[in-house]
Amino acid sequence: MDVQTLYEKALRSYLLRKYTPAAATCLRAIAASEPHDQSSLLKVNIWTLYLNIASTLLEHTPFLGINIKSLGIDHAPSEQELCRAIWNKVTHEGFGSVSDTDARIVSSCLVMYLKLDQLGVARDAAEAWFAALSDEFLDHIAANQDQDQIALGYISVVDLYITRILPGMEDFESAKTFVQYNSVLNEAKKKGLLANLQDQQTLVENERQQKKKLEEAAKLAAEEKQKEIERRQLEEAAYLKQEQEKTSKEQEEQQEEVVLEQEPEQERQPLPAVSSSRSMMSTTKKIQDWIHQITTKGMTTSGVVLVLLFALFALLRGQRGRFSAALQAFLNKLWQTVKMGTKVTYM
């Protein structure tokens, strides 16, 4: 089966979404194509189909679920390494070197890397291709800009590199430097690219400022929320402390009331009563001394006895509520003794 037939068969399988058979047939077409025919349109189409199959598989299938051998790659531990391996396969196996790789194939590689968000691989591939271009190639583009497929392919790679890859990495300075010092691009093209870069940079800076404002607002909101939490905690702590002090004070007052209720009644009498009791005790002492003097001196006349009786009677009747229990008991005993003595004397 010739190369053209294999290519058409692989293309039909790809359109029918039979990606594994399409990849196998495409590899057969690559192996059957002429290795030194870099400018062949059929060869460019075969490698473009190969890149489309690889891009579709990588974009819609988890990396671990891809049989990388179906793409002609022996080993790749990650998606990034697989993308680099595909670049090496296309440039060296397909076209012999990076410098001889068709610009249309380079553009297809860059588009695949952009879809897979492999900006680092895309940048390395584009810069490696730019660095490998010969002076004759660049002179041809400068002389035939916008006039043939080679020049259009170069412009396509430049557009992807300047307007998508470097801005995607937010490296606007490198993009501006590349455009300003590019000797191949005409002034109109440079002006358009620089304007595009400025618009993208302004958009990125605005988004960055907006993001910063949102972050600051979120930070302030978080700080205010934290302050509110701390304020509530302080209020709760103060309230709890106040309640504890109030409870403690109430307990102390209750304890004092209990102690006062348990004290004897005589311990809570006012000071004047104590003074009155002492005065009464002093009076009692004086009476006892006076009676003792009368007894020791032998004063037993009836007049003295009568005076003493009337005095005792008056004291017992008039002062009953004002003597202590001990004094009243003493006077009662004394009264009984006097009465007995009087009766004996009378008899």
UniProtKB/TrEMBL annotation:
User: Where is the region Disordered?
Assistant: 241-279
Positions of transmembrane segments: 298-316
Ranges of Low complexity composition bias in the record: 269-279
Q: Which domain of life is it from?
A: Eukaryota
Compositionally biased residues, Basic and acidic residues = 242-252
Q: Where is the composition biased (Acidic residues)?
A: 253-264
Is Membrane a UniProt keyword of this protein?
Answer: yes
The organism of origin for this protein: Rhizopus stolonifer
This chain's protein is named Uncharacterized protein
- Alphabetized UniProt keyword annotations: Membrane, Transmembrane, Transmembrane helix
